[in-house]
Task: structure prediction
Amino acid sequence: MATKDVKEFNGWFNRSYARLKERLSIYGKIDEDAFHDAYLAVRKQVMFSGGIKDWESYFFGCYRRILRSGAMDGHRYSCPGDEYFVRLGETDRTEETEEREEMLTGCDRLVRDIQNFLRRHFSYEDYRIFMLRFYETGSSFRTIARHMGEKTSAVTRRAQAMMESLRANRKFIARRRLIMAGEAA
Result:
Protein backbone atom coordinates (compact mmCIF):
# COMPACT_ATOMS: atom_id res chain seq x y z
CA MET A 1 0.00 0.00 0.00
CA ALA A 2 1.29 3.38 -0.96
CA THR A 3 0.59 5.44 2.17
CA LYS A 4 2.54 8.38 0.78
CA ASP A 5 0.36 8.44 -2.34
CA VAL A 6 -2.80 8.16 -0.24
CA LYS A 7 -1.70 11.07 1.97
CA GLU A 8 -0.96 13.17 -1.09
CA PHE A 9 -4.34 12.28 -2.60
CA ASN A 10 -6.17 13.10 0.64
CA GLY A 11 -4.36 16.44 0.79
CA TRP A 12 -5.25 17.19 -2.82
CA PHE A 13 -8.88 16.21 -2.22
CA ASN A 14 -9.13 18.45 0.86
CA ARG A 15 -7.70 21.38 -1.08
CA SER A 16 -9.87 20.68 -4.18
CA TYR A 17 -13.13 19.78 -2.43
CA ALA A 18 -14.91 23.10 -2.97
CA ARG A 19 -13.62 23.44 -6.54
CA LEU A 20 -14.74 19.89 -7.43
CA LYS A 21 -18.22 20.55 -6.07
CA GLU A 22 -18.40 23.86 -7.91
CA ARG A 23 -17.40 22.28 -11.23
CA LEU A 24 -19.92 19.47 -10.79
CA SER A 25 -22.72 21.87 -9.83
CA ILE A 26 -22.60 23.32 -13.35
CA TYR A 27 -24.35 20.13 -14.55
CA GLY A 28 -27.07 20.22 -11.91
CA LYS A 29 -27.59 19.17 -8.34
CA ILE A 30 -24.70 17.21 -6.85
CA ASP A 31 -25.42 13.72 -5.62
CA GLU A 32 -23.58 13.68 -2.29
CA ASP A 33 -23.53 9.89 -2.06
CA ALA A 34 -22.06 9.55 -5.54
CA PHE A 35 -19.55 12.31 -4.75
CA HIS A 36 -18.28 10.52 -1.66
CA ASP A 37 -18.37 7.13 -3.38
CA ALA A 38 -16.22 8.59 -6.15
CA TYR A 39 -13.76 9.83 -3.52
CA LEU A 40 -13.59 6.34 -2.02
CA ALA A 41 -13.16 4.72 -5.44
CA VAL A 42 -10.28 7.02 -6.38
CA ARG A 43 -8.68 6.61 -2.95
CA LYS A 44 -8.90 2.84 -3.27
CA GLN A 45 -7.32 3.00 -6.71
CA VAL A 46 -4.51 5.22 -5.40
CA MET A 47 -4.02 2.95 -2.39
CA PHE A 48 -3.73 -0.32 -4.25
CA SER A 49 -2.41 0.45 -7.68
CA GLY A 50 -1.39 4.08 -7.82
CA GLY A 51 -0.29 5.32 -11.21
CA ILE A 52 -3.06 7.92 -11.58
CA LYS A 53 -1.54 10.99 -13.20
CA ASP A 54 -4.60 13.25 -13.19
CA TRP A 55 -6.65 12.73 -10.03
CA GLU A 56 -9.26 15.30 -11.05
CA SER A 57 -10.11 13.67 -14.38
CA TYR A 58 -10.16 10.25 -12.77
CA PHE A 59 -12.44 11.57 -10.01
CA PHE A 60 -14.90 13.05 -12.54
CA GLY A 61 -14.90 9.77 -14.47
CA CYS A 62 -15.67 7.80 -11.31
CA TYR A 63 -18.39 10.26 -10.33
CA ARG A 64 -20.10 9.95 -13.74
CA ARG A 65 -19.82 6.14 -13.68
CA ILE A 66 -21.33 5.98 -10.19
CA LEU A 67 -24.15 8.32 -11.20
CA ARG A 68 -24.90 6.17 -14.25
CA SER A 69 -24.94 2.95 -12.25
CA GLY A 70 -27.17 4.63 -9.65
CA ALA A 71 -29.56 5.75 -12.38
CA MET A 72 -29.73 2.19 -13.69
CA ASP A 73 -30.39 0.89 -10.18
CA GLY A 74 -33.18 3.44 -9.84
CA HIS A 75 -34.90 2.06 -12.94
CA ARG A 76 -34.41 -1.53 -11.89
CA TYR A 77 -37.41 -1.41 -9.58
CA SER A 78 -40.75 -0.08 -10.63
CA CYS A 79 -43.26 1.47 -8.31
CA PRO A 80 -46.82 0.53 -9.23
CA GLY A 81 -48.34 3.58 -7.55
CA ASP A 82 -50.74 4.05 -4.67
CA GLU A 83 -53.77 2.63 -6.50
CA TYR A 84 -52.15 -0.79 -6.68
CA PHE A 85 -51.75 -1.03 -2.93
CA VAL A 86 -55.26 0.21 -2.26
CA ARG A 87 -56.70 -2.43 -4.59
CA LEU A 88 -54.42 -5.05 -3.14
CA GLY A 89 -55.82 -4.36 0.32
CA GLU A 90 -59.37 -4.72 -0.98
CA THR A 91 -58.97 -8.28 -2.26
CA ASP A 92 -61.08 -10.89 -0.56
CA ARG A 93 -58.77 -12.79 1.74
CA THR A 94 -61.42 -15.29 2.80
CA GLU A 95 -61.46 -16.91 -0.65
CA GLU A 96 -57.68 -17.31 -0.60
CA THR A 97 -57.74 -18.76 2.91
CA GLU A 98 -60.52 -21.21 2.00
CA GLU A 99 -58.63 -22.38 -1.10
CA ARG A 100 -55.44 -22.93 0.91
CA GLU A 101 -57.39 -24.73 3.62
CA GLU A 102 -58.90 -27.12 1.07
CA MET A 103 -55.44 -27.99 -0.24
CA LEU A 104 -54.11 -28.96 3.19
CA THR A 105 -54.05 -32.62 4.09
CA GLY A 106 -55.01 -33.87 7.53
CA CYS A 107 -51.34 -34.13 8.44
CA ASP A 108 -50.69 -30.55 7.30
CA ARG A 109 -53.56 -29.30 9.44
CA LEU A 110 -52.26 -31.22 12.44
CA VAL A 111 -48.79 -29.73 12.02
CA ARG A 112 -50.25 -26.22 11.70
CA ASP A 113 -52.37 -26.73 14.83
CA ILE A 114 -49.40 -28.07 16.78
CA GLN A 115 -47.37 -25.01 15.80
CA ASN A 116 -50.20 -22.69 16.84
CA PHE A 117 -50.53 -24.56 20.15
CA LEU A 118 -46.82 -24.15 20.84
CA ARG A 119 -46.93 -20.46 19.99
CA ARG A 120 -49.82 -19.88 22.37
CA HIS A 121 -48.55 -21.95 25.30
CA PHE A 122 -44.78 -21.42 25.23
CA SER A 123 -42.40 -18.50 24.84
CA TYR A 124 -41.25 -17.49 21.38
CA GLU A 125 -37.74 -18.70 22.22
CA ASP A 126 -39.08 -22.15 23.17
CA TYR A 127 -41.14 -22.22 19.98
CA ARG A 128 -38.03 -21.42 17.90
CA ILE A 129 -36.10 -24.21 19.64
CA PHE A 130 -38.85 -26.66 18.75
CA MET A 131 -39.10 -25.45 15.16
CA LEU A 132 -35.34 -25.57 14.60
CA ARG A 133 -35.05 -29.03 16.07
CA PHE A 134 -38.08 -30.78 14.62
CA TYR A 135 -39.38 -28.85 11.58
CA GLU A 136 -36.92 -26.51 9.94
CA THR A 137 -33.27 -27.53 10.08
CA GLY A 138 -33.23 -30.61 12.24
CA SER A 139 -30.36 -29.05 14.19
CA SER A 140 -29.04 -30.91 17.18
CA PHE A 141 -29.76 -29.64 20.66
CA ARG A 142 -26.03 -28.99 21.03
CA THR A 143 -25.97 -26.71 17.96
CA ILE A 144 -29.10 -24.85 19.05
CA ALA A 145 -27.72 -24.42 22.58
CA ARG A 146 -24.43 -23.10 21.22
CA HIS A 147 -26.23 -20.48 19.14
CA MET A 148 -28.43 -19.49 22.07
CA GLY A 149 -25.55 -19.35 24.53
CA GLU A 150 -27.21 -21.88 26.84
CA LYS A 151 -26.34 -25.30 28.11
CA THR A 152 -27.41 -28.25 26.00
CA SER A 153 -29.23 -29.79 28.95
CA ALA A 154 -31.35 -26.64 29.42
CA VAL A 155 -32.37 -26.58 25.75
CA THR A 156 -33.13 -30.32 25.86
CA ARG A 157 -35.32 -29.89 28.96
CA ARG A 158 -37.26 -27.09 27.31
CA ALA A 159 -37.88 -29.17 24.19
CA GLN A 160 -38.87 -32.19 26.28
CA ALA A 161 -41.40 -30.08 28.18
CA MET A 162 -42.98 -29.08 24.87
CA MET A 163 -43.03 -32.69 23.64
CA GLU A 164 -44.67 -33.87 26.87
CA SER A 165 -47.28 -31.15 26.54
CA LEU A 166 -48.05 -32.29 22.99
CA ARG A 167 -48.18 -35.96 23.96
CA ALA A 168 -50.60 -35.15 26.80
CA ASN A 169 -52.96 -33.28 24.48
CA ARG A 170 -55.80 -35.71 23.79
CA LYS A 171 -57.03 -33.86 20.70
CA PHE A 172 -53.66 -34.21 18.98
CA ILE A 173 -53.48 -37.90 19.93
CA ALA A 174 -56.96 -38.58 18.49
CA ARG A 175 -56.22 -36.69 15.27
CA ARG A 176 -52.92 -38.52 14.82
CA ARG A 177 -54.70 -41.86 15.21
CA LEU A 178 -57.31 -40.83 12.62
CA ILE A 179 -54.58 -39.82 10.19
CA MET A 180 -52.71 -43.08 10.75
CA ALA A 181 -55.92 -45.10 10.25
CA GLY A 182 -56.65 -43.20 7.04
CA GLU A 183 -53.19 -43.93 5.64
CA ALA A 184 -53.48 -47.63 6.50
CA ALA A 185 -56.79 -47.92 4.63
Residues 3-25 form the longest helix (23 residues). The mean pLDDT is 80. The radius of gyration is 31 Å. Residues 70 and 110 are 49 Å apart (CA to CA).
